[in-house]
Design brief:
CATH class of the largest domain: Alpha Beta
Order of helices and strands: EHEHHHHEHEHHHEH
Number of helices: 10
Distance between the termini: 7 Å
Number of domains: 2
Shape: globular
Number of strands: 5
Strand content: 5-15%
Bound molecules: adenosine-5'-diphosphate
CATH topology of the largest domain: Rossmann fold
Largest sheet: 5 strands, parallel
Length: 198
């Protein structure tokens, strides 16, 4: 089955685009959702995180203190690597398992924010779809949506691929630099293209 890897910087509009494909009946696998599920209470990955980062990384109820974890790995390359080593192989396996499930859909979309950065999805996805927008807009959207400060948002953007790097790797591009309604047409054109390719 044709598998499309959907990627883009933080706040570029990946989730928004994924929802539009979902509304056309296309199954979406979202690695952020999988990462959340894998770190729920009782999951082996959460226990590994607790032993790697200390029990302080858990809240009183045993759930993951996500803001604290984010802070711990933010400016610490070693810690980030440690977390990635726990999560990335598991996420990849979970994606493969989801893709192996029987579906009538002619193609599927896998949302991977760090698709190009991790390089771990070669052999799983057939095409790279990049959601692109100017960095200033990306920043505005992130600040409007979340509790991140501008400095934090900029720092995250700095760890991700640049627009140019992403566009260079893209098989298909959705430009999200205007109102959301402008996405509908682009998504339906790509939908037609993917149905043909599938
Ligand atoms: P990502 O999944 O890439 O981080 P989202 O799809 O969550 O990005 O979009 C980030 C935020 O910006 C969300 O709050 C979303 O509703 C908003 N957004 C996305 N595209 C547009 C747009 N074209 N115009 C206005 N707001 C947008």
């Amino acid at each position: 089955m044709l598998v499309i890897g959907l990627t883009g910087g933080i706040g570029s509009g990946k989730s928004t685009v994924a929802e539009l494909f979902a509304s056309l009946g296309i199954a979406i696998t979202d690695t952020d959702v999988i990462a959340h599920q894998l770190t729920a209470v009782g999951q082996p990955a959460l226990e590994e995180i607790a032993s790697a980062f200390g029990k302080e990384i858990l809240q009183k109820d045993g759930s993951l203190n996500r803001p604290l974890l984010r802070k711990s790995v933010f400016a610490d390359v070693e810690a980030k690597k440690k977390l990635e080593n726990i999560l990335h192989p598991r996420i990849r396996e979970a994606v493969k398992a989801e893709l192996a499930e029987a579906t009538k859909a002619p193609y599927r979309i896998v949302v991977v924010p760090l698709l190009l950065e991790t390089g771990a999805y070669e052999g799983i996805i057939n095409r790279v779809l990049v959601v692109d927008c100017p960095e200033q807009q990306q920043l505005q959207r992130v600040l409007a949506r979340s509790s991140l400060t501008e400095a934090e948002a900029r720092a995250i953007m700095a760890t991700q691929s640049s627009r140019e790097q992403r566009l260079h790797r893209a098989d298909d591009v959705i430009t999200n630099d205007a109102e959301q309604e402008k996405l509908n047409h682009q998504v339906s054109e790509l939908h037609k293209k993917y149905l043909t390719l599938a």
